[in-house]
Fold this protein.
Amino acid sequence: MAILLLLPKANIKSFWFNRKLSVYNLTVHYSIGQTKGRICVIWYEGLRGRSGNDLASALITALNYVADHNPAMTNITLWSDACISQNKNSAMSLALINFLEAHIQVEQVIQKFGTPGHSPVQEVDSIHSVIERKSRN
């Protein structure tokens, strides 16, 4: 699931209305047996946007990290939000196919979608809450 962060943060009114930098964060929570972890793939608007291609690239970066650090992993279940432009598209499908071809130990990737308007992964919401809370200070 991806969130948008506007940086820098400040409590000065005139500063608030100036142009801010958009920073994108794709957050991944994974659970493999007893091992749990989180990955945040972060990029800024000058590098890429948040189109389906951009999110597919960020997701594959995270999946590559998990697969490289867990060589015994054979199955992956992805929970994504129901955003058609970002998750339910041919770019994401092709990226996942390329991932499977590059990681022959991974036999299957299942992509599930949550109900529109509701987060399918509470752990990711928790990570986003911590990011928001820390950025206020």
Notes: The chain has one domain: 2-136. Helices lie at 13-16, 52-69, 90-102, 122-136. The two ends are 24 Å apart (CA to CA).
